[in-house]
């Protein structure tokens, strides 16, 4: 795990079931995450993934790569294009800093509409 | 008119909200539901919760009411009133001081950090609202978050507006270019005659007119006056673009005159190929009279 190391690309199929089950598992009951009619009425093209789920996916992307002994210290994300139902969300990542056991990984999650999420994750790996 | 900035300053001055308790202590069923939905197979979440779940524990829930002193709730209410009715999260920066163990009871406090706007965004005009939250176990701060949402007024989709129909005076109609080859024709329409060029050499009829006969090469054209009867050989219905002096849609017909030449002109009626027509003359002004066509009953 060195600066410049890339994380393997990872694809998430954002099916309606995925969008809704993750919204409920994160206890986010905003209608735009489970009710397409209301989502459209509010100016959206479909239901879309909530931010707590995006945070969870970014964490998972990094820990799937770093292994279960890595400790997650920080997840900072910025949202861009919404990730709508039926989108494929593609994750890319790279180690950008390493200070002994502390690593910073830059992550981007993209759909066909553009960058859904850009962010950094700080982890601590065992010596 | 609501002064959003003034209201924001008032809410920011209130500082931290009182601690709000999570509905449940950190527990395995909620962790497992989360892992299942996210698809995370990390084996380490049997005694501790995934750090990224921290906000989940203190979500207001399905019928949740925000507490009255919750700054985000207050700010959302003000922006709702100001017409910014939709919301989307834009930033979440979470720092985890330690992992949370099963059975621990969380609480959260929140303060309003910043409100900026109105900004034009891809979603519509809106305000960025930034809050700072701290999660506590007892009096120990275990995690922190800077959270930003965009509260916006959904952009109106432009309605399908029909193009404004401009009634332009007939005098603004596109005028024919009259030259030595064609002036006999426009002299004729002013007199109510439909003139067809006829070669002074071989007698060939032709339209549109030209200086030299394509058959014999003579350059002494004359004309005959047509009966003004014919049939529609072909036509177009013009819808777009607008044409000065015309109201769309209108029909331009190619009429085959009984004398044998074809002539273009506007047709007033429901066109069909083979339909019998006769000429009508419309005076635009002293200079210009336009010939056009109308249906003619066969007698």
Give a verbal description of the structure.
The complex is a heterodimer of chains A (127) and B (299). Helices cover 25% and strands 41% of the residues of chain A. Chain A is α+β, with helices and mostly antiparallel strands and 127 residues long. Chain A has one domain (6-124): Thiol Ester Dehydrase, Chain A (Roll), CATH 3.10.129.10. In chain A, strands 1-3-4-5-2 form a 5-stranded antiparallel beta sheet. Chain B has 299 residues and is of the alpha+beta class. Chain B has 2 domains: 4-152, Hotdog Thioesterase (Thiol Ester Dehydrase, Chain A), CATH 3.10.129; 170-295, no CATH class. Chain B is built from 5 helices and 13 strands. Chain B has helices at residues 4-13, 28-38, 54-57, 71-81, 183-190; strands at 20-21, 86-96, 106-121, 124-137, 140-152, 195-199, 205-206, 221-225, 229-238, 250-257, 262-267, 276-283, 289-295. In chain B, helix 1 packs antiparallel against helix 4. Chain B is rod-shaped and about 115 Å long. Chain A binds chain B through residues 12, 18, 21-22, 24-30, 42-43, 50-60, 63-64, 68-69, 71-79, 82, and chain B through 30, 33-34, 36-40, 42-44, 50-53, 55-56, 59, 61-62, 64, 85-96, 99, 123-124, 154-155. Strand 2 of chain A pairs antiparallel with strand 2 (86-96) of chain B, so a sheet runs across the interface.
């Amino acid at each position: 795990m060195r600066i410049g190391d890339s994380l393997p690309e990872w694809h998430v199929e954002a099916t309606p079931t995925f969008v809704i089950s993750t919204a409920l598992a994160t206890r986010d009951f905003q209608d735009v995450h489970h009710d397409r009619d209301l989502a459209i009425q509010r100016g959206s093209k479909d239901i879309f993934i909530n931010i707590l789920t995006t945070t969870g996916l970014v964490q998972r992307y990094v820990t799937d790569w770093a292994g279960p002994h890595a400790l997650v210290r920080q997840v900072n994300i910025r949202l861009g294009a919404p990730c709508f139902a039926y989108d494929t969300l593609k994750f890319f990542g790279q180690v950008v800093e390493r200070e002994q056991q502390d690593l910073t990984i830059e992550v981007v999650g993209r759909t066909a509409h553009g960058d859904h999420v850009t962010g950094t994750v700080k982890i601590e790996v065992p010596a | 008119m609501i002064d959003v900035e003034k209201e924001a300053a008032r809410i920011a001055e209130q500082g931290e909200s009182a601690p709000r308790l999570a509905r449940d202590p950190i527990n395995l069923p909620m962790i497992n539901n989360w892992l299942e939905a996210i698809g995370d197979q990390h084996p380490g979440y049997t005694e501790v919760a995934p750090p990224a779940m921290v906000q989940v524990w203190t979500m207001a829930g399905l019928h949740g009411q925000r507490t009255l002193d919750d700054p985000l709730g207050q700010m959302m209410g003000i922006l709702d009133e100001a017409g910014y009715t939709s919301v989307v999260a834009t930033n979440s920066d979470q720092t985890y001081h330690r992992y949370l163990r099963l059975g621990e009871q969380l609480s959260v406090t929140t303060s309003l950090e910043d409100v900026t706007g109105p900004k034009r965004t891809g979603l519509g005009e809106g305000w960025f609202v930034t809050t700072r939250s701290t999660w506590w176990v007892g009096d120990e701060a275990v995690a922190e978050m800077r959270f930003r949402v965009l509260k916006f007024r959904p952009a109106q989709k432009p309605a399908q507006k029909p193009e404004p129909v401009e009634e332009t005076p007939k005098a603004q109609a596109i005028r024919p270019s009259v030259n030595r080859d064609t002036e006999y024709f426009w002299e004729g329409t002013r007199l109510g005659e439909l003139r067809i060029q006829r070669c002074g050499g071989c007698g060939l009829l032709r339209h549109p007119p030209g200086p030299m006969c394509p058959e014999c090469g003579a350059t002494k054209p004359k004309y005959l006056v047509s009966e003004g009867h014919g049939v529609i050989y072909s036509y177009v219905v013009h819808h777009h673009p607008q044409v000065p002096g015309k109201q769309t849609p209108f029909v331009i017909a190619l009429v085959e005159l009984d004398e044998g030449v074809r002539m273009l002109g506007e047709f007033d009626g429901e066109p069909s190929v083979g339909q019998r027509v006769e000429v009508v003359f419309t005076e635009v002004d002293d200079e210009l009279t336009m010939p056009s066509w109308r249906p003619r009953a066969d007698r």
